[in-house]
## 1
Amino acid sequence: MPELPEVETIRRIIEPQTAGRSVVSISIHNPKIITFPDADTFESSLAGCTFTGMSRKGKFLIFHLDNGSRLVLHLRMTGQLLVTPPDYPEEKHTHLIAELSDGKQLRYIDVRRFGRFWLLGKDEADTVTGMDKLGIEPDDEALTVDFLKEKLSKRRKAIKEMLLDQTIIAGIGNIYSDEILHAAGIYPEKPCNILTNAEWKRLAEQIPQVIAWATEANEITPEDYLAGKGKEYRNTPFLRAYGHSGKPCEVCGTPFEKMIVGGRSSCYCPKCQKK
DNA sequence: CTAGCTTCCTGATAGC
DNA sequence: TGCTATCAGGAAGCTA
């Protein structure tokens, strides 16, 4: 479910509720979500650690711990992270509960169980999680027309597929690739090698803008976040392209069309995003 | 190297 | 109503 704006929203909600708290104990209901190290070591190593803060890299969430290790999490499709009172009812598909020193609990819920945890020791490298392969952040100053052209202009793949490639720009998923391409007025299936200079320019502008706009629009109070169980980000009402198949384009009124690009459903305005 | 397919899961929804 | 088929915002692993 979550892409960069949603992961960032989660970080902003969870960080102030975990920083400064230590982990009293952990119960792992489903060891399959622990990728590294094994679930037992994960549990014994994390117990007693104190959270110092959180960061985000692409769609990865990172809890920093006082001993220099990092608790890394990727939510994939349906992962949810909640800080709850201890007596909060247990959601179905709760796979991990950490008891915190302030009496609250940090819980991980994931219907489809695609999400993954890693506990990296002080000197453990990002290669363990794959974070080392991530490209630049959408708000990185290095994201320029020249950067995009250098990385992509010789590739024949559809521009939409390249936006989803985490090794070039990190954090864009199916929703925001549709939003970015609509904002930039580019046909999703257009091969990178035939994009015009004007199109590269619009992409370089719209990638950071759309992501920043969505992060802003996702803003939510901790109360509403908990009430929505960490999965209702109200991120559908403000979208302009994704899921709008058949609905009129806000810009020109033309109905959105749907197609499959690289195996992913894509919505686009046939007038604003011409072939 | 890339392209394309499968896999990991459950639940919501569409169609009959 | 009840059944089955299809699809879902991600990414790794596999084959060709």
## 2
Amino acid sequence: MIQTVSICNTSKHESPAPMPPMNPHAIKVACSNCNLRELCMPMGLNSDELDRIDEVVAARRKIKRGTTLFRNGEKFVSLYAIRTGFFKTCVACEDGRDQVTGFQMAGEVIGLDGIVNDHHTCDAVALEDAEVCVMPFDRIEELSREVTSLQRHVHKIMSREIVREHGVMLLLGSMRAEERLAAFLLNLVQRLHARGFSQSELVLRMTREEIGSYLGLKLETVSRTFSKFVEDGIVEVRQRHVRIINTEALRDIVNPSPNAV
Amino acid sequence: MIQTVSICNTSKHESPAPMPPMNPHAIKVACSNCNLRELCMPMGLNSDELDRIDEVVAARRKIKRGTTLFRNGEKFVSLYAIRTGFFKTCVACEDGRDQVTGFQMAGEVIGLDGIVNDHHTCDAVALEDAEVCVMPFDRIEELSREVTSLQRHVHKIMSREIVREHGVMLLLGSMRAEERLAAFLLNLVQRLHARGFSQSELVLRMTREEIGSYLGLKLETVSRTFSKFVEDGIVEVRQRHVRIINTEALRDIVNPSPNAV
DNA sequence: CGACACCTTGAAGAGGTTCAAGAAATGTGG
DNA sequence: CCACATTTCTTGAACCTCTTCAAGGTGTCG
């Protein structure tokens, strides 16, 4: 069975919203008993620190599929920790060209681009219905002056994003289409696995065009490359359902080992 | 006349080194009277804060052209503010492939990649003799808990790097060779101009191959594209000396305006 | 001055794009 | 629940950009 990206299928249905769903105070919020804590918050906190950490989250917010969490040009106020759902971030040229800069899933933090100029420089679009924890950045800064492990954690999150982008630059700068798609699939499935999902099956939340934009390829090339992988017996593809049959083969494609051929 | 990248031609020659140049304590260090302060440190500090800021820099270090400031895999200890000189950072695959992820000049901070895993994930190579301020990261964290503007500054530096990399991803993912090289030249000259150099002349500190690696092109393509720009009368090129004759033309190449055919 | 690194240019070839058509899935309204 | 419109995906064929391979030129440094 192919699992979805959403983690919280065990969610405790918050009583059928008597208030409009966007009301920031409608939902009781607490990191301290969130099952995603180990993904988006520092670990090894004592209970006192844990209580303080709860203060970073101002509210939760639901984002419908296809709508934006924030847009290029909007005032930057908060970072967002993804609770459920799946996002893409993309930047745009004036001339309409745009580039998907990343896909984000539960437990990942989004909005770091906005810090430097107090305005967001990319769009964050929900690719499925999503829920995020809203974390006002001044509150994060305030708290991380007092809780050392939070400070360190914030720095690590930003550094991790920088390192991730280095990897994407390597991919875009020096890999061929098959290598790019193989690396993409391995990365996705590895992140899903870290969230308790299958190592071999996944449902793509994005279109071929969005994959192509991320990988610097046209959608036709993505489609053809999928077909090639299928021919070679490396994966099974039915629309957005992908089953990886031969993980090693994918690894070999990304990192052509010296002893091969 | 074509200027070099180095900013400190007005440097007060530190007396002919009676100690080995690498000795971390040989040189008196102070941000408060550094002419690069406005580039690498927060602005609008009161004098008390300025004194505190001086504590961030543990020492200076000279790096000879062609040698590394740090290497992939090395323990991460410090960030480095470039005082003089010019660097490239590059990541490498196991299979020998590598990718230049950026070129850094005076006033820019380098080493952010190391924070997340306590180890550097890329190499920083001096492309000309350079000098950096060594800023132990735990000291930065300590101080930024107390000096709010430093905290904010550190966050902005990291966010700026993330946004810069978004731009590179856009370039690598969706631009053609001419667009890439035009964008590259405009970016370089703009950063040099911010440091008091010419808007139209520059000396490349890197080889065609390094430019190519950064732009996701082969060195031959870089060379051919330079030649094309020369033919079109947009730039003059004599080896690494570049004079931009028509900045608008370069801008039009990067951002094909709708009204231009 | 000679060795070496770097750069330029040409010609052939490969990989990816573009254009086009049709198929499959998805969503919408009656 | 079905018919229809729309979006998404696949595949083919021609084309184009960039790469590869090769050779020669230029500059630099011991």
## 3
Amino acid sequence: MRVKIEDVARRAGVSTATVSLALNGNAKINAQTRDRIEAVAKELGYRPNPYAKRLAMRKSRQIGLIVPDIENIYYSALAQHALNELLTSGYALTISTSMNSPQMERRIVSDMIGNCVEGLLIAPVEKPNGDVSYLDRLDGAGIPYLFVTSRYPQLERPSVMCDLYAGMKQLLATLHAHGYRRMAMLSGSSDVYCFDLRDNAYRDFLREQGLEERRIEHLNGVRYDDSYRFVQHMDVEGVEAIVCVNDMMALGAINALSERGLRVPEDIAVAGFDDSIFSRVSPVALTTVRQDVHGMAVRAAKWILDLARDGAEAEESLRPIPCEVIVRRSTGRLA
Amino acid sequence: MRVKIEDVARRAGVSTATVSLALNGNAKINAQTRDRIEAVAKELGYRPNPYAKRLAMRKSRQIGLIVPDIENIYYSALAQHALNELLTSGYALTISTSMNSPQMERRIVSDMIGNCVEGLLIAPVEKPNGDVSYLDRLDGAGIPYLFVTSRYPQLERPSVMCDLYAGMKQLLATLHAHGYRRMAMLSGSSDVYCFDLRDNAYRDFLREQGLEERRIEHLNGVRYDDSYRFVQHMDVEGVEAIVCVNDMMALGAINALSERGLRVPEDIAVAGFDDSIFSRVSPVALTTVRQDVHGMAVRAAKWILDLARDGAEAEESLRPIPCEVIVRRSTGRLA
DNA sequence: ATGAAAGCGCTAACAC
DNA sequence: GTGTTAGCGCTTTCAT
């Protein structure tokens, strides 16, 4: 059995209470006593048992993070940055993946409650999710939680996310300024907040500019293959630009187009979203909309920590983080 | 305070011991009693406090996983598959990232010990790591651990990994069979096991075939930019093929080459490694060596579970998982 | 400033 | 089969 507080106490000639106080930096312990205790603790290689500690303190010092897909660079970057942010906080991050399944998310939320996380960050699934009542149990358990990257619109809950609507509008405005008029849109399922925002931006922009109404293509998935396969047979007659909701899809579009003998951007322009590594890896550098993933992660982590610690109130409205349009060659025909 | 075992016991008219036994499926509890207890537990929404449980059982039901970089799809896929494998095991996975830093890995190992993980999976850093003595503390703490994807050669420890040496040799043989002779190699730091294996395969192959000896290019990093920048100024005079230790680097090479006006595979062939999404996303589909990431994850997870549970012995020698060469267009000049 | 002792919520002998 | 009870290792009043 590993060394416990009692061993340290005995060796230092004090009580366990004193050891506990000293090691936790309580001010009322004599400096010399503390030093001695610390020395003994180090000498013995004492490490408090975290489970005993959590039990006694009735705190878990644990923050949860749920992402739909850890293999998606967008979410893994989010996780990495959150991890970094919590590094010095005394809190640990428990990462789970919902695999884009509402049922899975539900199960994970339940596990998180079971594990007594003190706060939870949720990046919602990218599928329609009608019944999110399971999230109420977090409130029931007194566990603060926040959405990141998106949210469930049926819930009046704060979310740390980028301004997807404005970002998409800026992108379209930029393309418009470059002379593009007939722009097709490849999106994900409707009734998914983070896609809906961009869909709305698209519709609004077309209307505001008096441009021809075009059907938004709602693909079932938003991965490379989904867009690649779609664009293989897509009717691109008269289309000057294809706008996608992420960079992977844009890549899928580019590769499918070039296999059809269409060159990007000479014959048709393509734009992505996120400014992920894929936008740089692309055969023709991708015009895209930068999401500040790092900023989101830091902001969400700080906020959930505040909530966990001080029980500070969740300010209802947080201004979304601005996006930035990055123009590269894939929309350069007329630039 | 949330409902505890005592509440269930009182409500069901039994003792806490009975509740505990019943809920943990102990056979000696009367079926009816068990049913009643389970009903009460559900009704009250009872969830055992995991920390009290772990403290009492002196078990954490926690497995650790350390990866160098969670934003690397190779490792995030590993994590996802391990997560899946543990889903029904009663164990949870704690994921940490060493950010390719030995010091960080050391710190994480220390944390893992502190958290009493019952087993640890370590994907080593991709940098030379001379002093890995901190891993001895795992033995000291009686925590079984295994390497995944690579290993530290100075430690006689089992590792679940693919047969990188054979994989690279097969790849070279395939290229050779396609008529390629003058093949350059872009690798990572030397003194990193998973790179050394491939470097050795390269050297051995050249020697065995009596081919001209070529210097292996040891890049500092193995990411897209590292290879992209290198290939921008690389001397490719007479080089028929560039072989990289991962797909990202191959992409970097391809894009740098095409900016130099060299076409792949017509002017020069490029091969990657891993068969990640990048090999398919590539402008010209990448010839690569498939690593069975799923297989590694499953195998490692099962094994570490065995070690954690039964304390089964770690069989010293596990046969490495075979790789598979995937031939695509990027080496198709002579195909 | 320090110690004694009562929990924290659960498990596991051991007794019946 | 079920109950009693003594821990698991730590924190935290409350005395002193």
